[in-house]
Amino acid sequence: MTELRNSLPKITTKIPGPKAKELIKLRQDNVPVGVSSGVPTFIERGEGAMFEDVDGNIMLDFVGGIGVLNIGYSNPEVIEVVKEQVSKFFHSSINVVQYESYVRLAEKLNSIIPGDFKKKTMFVNSGSEALENAVKIARKYTKRTEIVTFTGGFHGRTSLTMAMTSTIKPYKLGFGPFAPGVHQAEFPYIYRRPTGIAKENAVKYYIEKLKNFFLEKINVEDVAAVVIEPLQGEGGFLPTPIEYVRELRRICDENGILLVCDEVQSGYCRTGRMFASEYWADNGLYADIITSAKSLGAGMPISAVTGRAEIMDASQAGGIGGTYAGNPIACVSALKVIEIMERDNYAAKSNHIAEIAMDRFNKMKEKYKIIGDVRGLGAMIGVEFVTDRVTKEPASKEVKSIIKECNENGLVILNCGVRGNTLRFLMPLCITDEQLNAGLDILENAVSIVSIKA
């Protein structure tokens, strides 16, 4: 099956093909419309950064299961440890019969997650659950109730995490009322800073707004935690400026507030480091709690909450956990993922991808006026499209057309941002240079076609 791992995109039937059309009809008859789907086809098998659909089309994946497949599809070493664990036992529940892989994985995360202090880790099943538990633990430890998040932030789809999430459409529309006690400060969206604010003064402007927020909008003595992404995902792939993090850490320290770093999408070598918050650590800044998920399990459902030991120990026995939390199959998968990422230096792979992709994107920006901004950390890259570079009017329809054109030519990509006008890039970090350049060629051709029509 190695021919798929090293292959390039090849479309043999128009997408969707005949088998995919049958399955689309089956889906429409049996699956709620709220469970959306971006690409009009169905995967048959996947390897590395490539997959074959049910009609034999070979597709290049620049989405990676929305950041889950940093290690790629079907890593042989991960497959083997999962097979071995499945042959022993599927489940026992850590709250009943303990198993070694859970505590070994906790030990590993405690050793690699940034923080010059003793840490402890618990596991659950999804990013949303990780954020829910981070909030529970923060409230228990501080004996406070209020939570601060940010505009553009995404933290999940459960009742509490919907309240923490900024975007109304589609994640919150019609699902209220939402959990109380959540307040949103303005995120430093540098590209969309107010007219008249110079770029070099933008961070200072947003820091002033942050100070005013804590003065005017909330009683700091009631705040248990501030939750922020080191690089916003759904919000538009927006890096949080280090100067802003420094001010946020100062405010938290002076007022007894915990700082929670949401690394669900940015973790596990995506940004050129094992964790994006390592860039914070370079500046002597640490979160009190870090949540991670997505690429931790190579596709197995697992997420982690890691924090200062005294904070994590605040809960009473039985207060945190869950039936499937830290499933043994997911734990062994995660241990192998981290081993491979460290051994094969996946952080360096991320930076190598970034060098090629960012150079190409910046050249495309010079060539096509529809591209307004290029940004990111490592191989977590966003390209924002606008119809006018002065007014920054979002080119949302044009982005949809670009995605469709890419899909039809064998490249899977996805948009993000509250305006839907930013393409996000989360290609598996095992992608070859040849595959990466082939995907960028397909993308540029799509941008060229849409730019002409626009």
Automatic annotation (TrEMBL):
InterPro entries according to UniProt: 4NH2But_aminotransferase_bac, Aminotrans_3, Aminotrans_3_PPA_site, Class-III_PLP-dep_AT
Keyword Nucleus: no
Keywords: Aminotransferase, Pyridoxal phosphate, Transferase
EC numbers for this chain: 2.6.1.19
Pathway the protein acts in: Amino-acid degradation; 4-aminobutanoate degradation
Superkingdom of the source species: Bacteria
Reaction equations catalysed: (S)-3-amino-2-methylpropanoate + 2-oxoglutarate = 2-methyl-3-oxopropanoate + L-glutamate
GO molecular function per UniProt: 4-aminobutyrate:2-oxoglutarate transaminase activity
Cofactor(s) needed for function: pyridoxal 5'-phosphate
Family: Belongs to the class-III pyridoxal-phosphate-dependent aminotransferase family.
Protein name per its UniProtKB record: 4-aminobutyrate--2-oxoglutarate transaminase
Gene source species: Clostridium frigoris
Lineage: Bacteria, Bacillati, Bacillota, Clostridia, Eubacteriales
